TrEMBL record:
Domain Flagellar basal body rod protein N-terminal: 5-35
Annotated coiled-coil segments of the chain: none
Chain ranges of the Flagellar hook protein FlgE/F/G-like D1 domain: 96-166
Protein's organism: Bacillus lumedeiriae
Compartments where found: Bacterial flagellum basal body
Family: Belongs to the flagella basal body rod proteins family.
Protein name (database record): Flagellar hook protein FlgE
């Protein structure tokens, strides 16, 4: 069988994955705190026809002859670029201007990280996200404490450094904390706008917003998705044409095989 046919198949698979990533980006164009994906490719191993030779016997050297066997996915990256901040004027809508993630704890004690800052108060006055996971804060005695604003509080506000001021009530849990990772690209998406740490993301460093390189909190705003529709539609056209070109390779290879079969009638 022709090598070109299998090269075309590998190209079609790669561009199909690229279209899948583009489709997910477009589907989340209005998802708060969403970070878009990007697909990169690399070539497969090449078949050696002849190797290189050095100059000898009065003749110059020759270059190697190789035939490539197609392409494959190199990476599927998550691009952690800053999304624009949309003003909502709601005190529990928090955006991060800069690097870092909000820290959450679920009902099993697992730690999760998010850039989506739409938080709420539950019936007990604890600050939670839309799934009921507790936003983590810190006091002088330690970190990883849920933040509680007593139900008799008249009003409250959250500062750029994560500090919470309450009027007519009490606060427990201290400041909102921001987690920074040595390699945020190594985080793993787990759905619901959440990330978890991996072996390649490194150990998170918890700090007050605006300290240690962490971003500041902008209360009354939400970070929008960093998906650019014009860029995604352009990439969609490129992927579509790449897929189409690879199908043409398979069609042409099939026609050549048909001619070979028809040599003997």
């Amino acid at each position: 069988m022709l090598r070109s046919m299998y090269s075309g198949i590998s190209g079609m698979k790669g561009f199909q994955n690229k279209l899948d990533v583009i489709g997910n980006n477009i589907a989340n164009v209005n998802t708060f705190g969403f970070k878009k994906g990007r697909v990169t490719f690399k070539d497969m191993v090449s078949q050696q026809i002849s190797g290189a030779s050095a100059a000898a016997g009065g003749l110059g050297g020759t270059n190697p002859k190789q035939v490539g066997l197609g392409s494959q996915i190199s990476t599927i990256d998550t691009l952690h670029t800053q999304g624009s901040l949309q003003t909502t004027a709601r005190p529990l809508d928090l955006g991060i201007s800069g690097d870092g993630f909000f820290v959450l704890k679920n009902n099993t004690g697992d730690t999760l990280y998010t850039r989506s800052g739409n938080f709420y108060l539950d019936v007990n006055g604890d600050i939670v996200n839309s799934d009921g996971y507790y936003l983590q804060g810190a006091t002088g005695s330690g970190a990883n404490k849920k933040i509680n604003i007593s139900t008799d509080t008249q009003s409250f506000s959250i500062g750029a450094d994560g500090s919470i001021s309450v009027v007519g009530g009490t606060l427990t849990g201290g400041k909102v904390q921001i987690a920074k990772f040595p390699n945020p690209d190594g985080l793993e998406k787990v759905g619901s706008n959440m990330f978890i740490s991996t072996n390649n993301s490194g150990t998170p460093v918890l700090s007050d917003p605006g300290a240690g390189g962490a971003g500041k909190i902008v209360a009354g705003t939400l970070e929008m998705s960093n998906v650019d529709l014009s860029e995604e539609f352009t990439e969609m056209i490129v992927a579509q044409r790449g897929f189409q070109a690879n199908t043409r390779i398979i069609t042409t290879s099939d026609e050549i095989l048909q001619e070979l079969v028809n040599l003997k009638r």
